[in-house]
Design brief:
This protein has two helices and two strands. By secondary structure, the chain is α+β, with helices and mostly antiparallel strands. The protein has a two-stranded antiparallel ribbon with strand order 1-2. Strand 1 (24-29) and strand 2 form a beta hairpin. The longest helix is centred in the C-terminal third of the chain and has 8 residues, at 61-68. It is elongated. The protein starts with 10 loop residues before the first helix and ends with a helix.
Length: 71
């Protein structure tokens, strides 16, 4: 850890944990002082698997968001 509190994750650890640029690390400290780190994967194209909703009427997303899920 440097003076500014930054931590360098060694390349071997990044490879083993499949950590990529843009991923987040979630740090947790237990009551007994142990530290654990969880990798939170950055998700690109999270909605790319979804099909578009077809509707005969115009939908204003902010006002009609529940309509998109169907009634």
């Amino acid at each position: 850890m440097n003076e500014r509190g930054s931590v360098t994750v060694p390349a071997s650890v990044r490879r083993s944990a499949d950590i990529e640029a843009g991923d987040k690390l979630r740090w947790t400290v237990t009551d007994d002082g142990n530290i654990s780190v969880e990798v939170v994967k950055q998700r690109y194209g999270a909605f790319s698997d979804l099909d578009p909703v077809e509707s005969d009427e115009e939908i204003h997303v902010a006002a009609d968001h529940d309509l998109a899920a169907g009634e």
